[in-house]
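ok so i was messing around last nite and threw this chain in just to see what happens. nothing serious, just curious
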Amino acid sequence: MLSEPLLSAPDEPYTFALFGDTPYSRFERAHMPALLERMAIAGARFVIHVGDFKAGQTPCTNAAFEDRLSLFDHQPLAFILAPGDNEWLDCGRASAGGFDPEERLAWLRAHFFPPGRSLGAAPITLDSQASDPRHAAYRENLRWRMGPVLYATLNVPGPDNNWGDRIEPGSEHLARQRANTAWLAATFDLARRDGLAAVVIAFQADPAFEEAAAGRPRRGFQALLDQLRESAEAFPGEVVIAHGDTHTHRIDHPLFDRQGRLMVRVTRVETYGFPFMGWVEVRVTPGATPLFRFTSHLYAPGEGRPP
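result:
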């Protein structure tokens, strides 16, 4: 049975888990069930994986994908994936099997994003952008609410959001950018309409906040960063941007407003990534300031039950 979209009373504290860029190695794959179990023992209500569930050079075979799907779908928490470049965009590399990237993305959509629900042994109800006929392909753009927080995922892969090596981006980037723009706008509109306290946005790529702040935005991410800034400025609550990609775990405030002032209501959480294995525990306490508290957990194999 699926849980209701509103998973918690507005004033009930809860936690959720963030991780990504794993499992890459045999070690990480062997220890992944133990890592996921620790999230559940800690009391997380759901887990968000921000993409890259295999190494870039690992062949993008159905068997590899089915292994990850079984791993994620049979662990005890509701599981939500934001797809990364390693599992579709980079599959065209010879080392990854020379697959058609868009065909691999279609496979992911058909299997990792069941209509109306998350993965996991205790799935929760999710809204998907695929319910909009204008963006019916984008099953991976998801949204759900828990207490005073609205959550959304976007398909934004590293390292350049599939802009490509030409002056103008390709058709895939343009179509997905239109879908992402619409989904992000609708998410903030919904949060404002319902008077929610916070919005959490999760995607895979590091959009190069630092380069943008220095006046050198990457072309594949400029539109996304502009929209995130404008949306956060117009939203009175807190905003968390969760991503992976560079394998550099950090929690900071990366955005500046149009006057060059640091936007302290916007927090970036970049997850751990290979060769470091771990997760971020996020505690949500309605009515508290700040609303979110972050605890980083670096995985140590000797702790708790072995895999």
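not much to say yet. The chain has one domain: 14-298.
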